[in-house]
């Protein structure tokens, strides 16, 4: 059986809160982990008026702005799925990469399944925090991005803009993965 080529795609989302089916995903940013200039970004209309004030504060976004400027969730997820498919060769498998991937993947998976009935990433994600823990043999507490940054020294920083954060996470992934290869 021929091994499929893995295409690592760094994904970040900004939301109105932590509950996948109640809070809204407002923005999605994604990039190819090894070619971060090849990227995708979209703002979505909210699916509800529920929000956690701190979640909106950290992004600087408002529900009104997203309602006015965002695409419908269906249109946004169709565009995202098309981008993923376009950048995954026929013999490839897209791999969702995130920093605290369970959070971001939960929203992306829910939106893909709810609005398109299919998730191009399948049912799994690669979490940079877990990868780092495995490489370094550290505690979960020591997988915070601030701790990882001190070890791998990325050039980029996160700022709660989904595309900027996807690019930052792509750099972290590359650096942590390099550590894993050097540890062999």
UniProtKB/TrEMBL annotation:
<feature type="domain" description="Exonuclease">
    <location>
        <begin position="7"/>
        <end position="182"/>
    </location>
</feature>
<keyword id="KW-0269">Exonuclease</keyword>
<keyword id="KW-0540">Nuclease</keyword>
<dbReference type="InterPro" id="IPR036397">
    <property type="entry name" value="RNaseH_sf"/>
</dbReference>
<dbReference type="InterPro" id="IPR013520">
    <property type="entry name" value="Ribonucl_H"/>
</dbReference>
<protein>
    <submittedName>
        <fullName>3'-5' exonuclease</fullName>
    </submittedName>
</protein>
<dbReference type="Pfam" id="PF00929">
    <property type="entry name" value="RNase_T"/>
</dbReference>
<dbReference type="InterPro" id="IPR012337">
    <property type="entry name" value="RNaseH-like_sf"/>
</dbReference>
<keyword id="KW-0378">Hydrolase</keyword>
<dbReference type="GO" id="GO:0004527">
    <property type="term" value="F:exonuclease activity"/>
</dbReference>
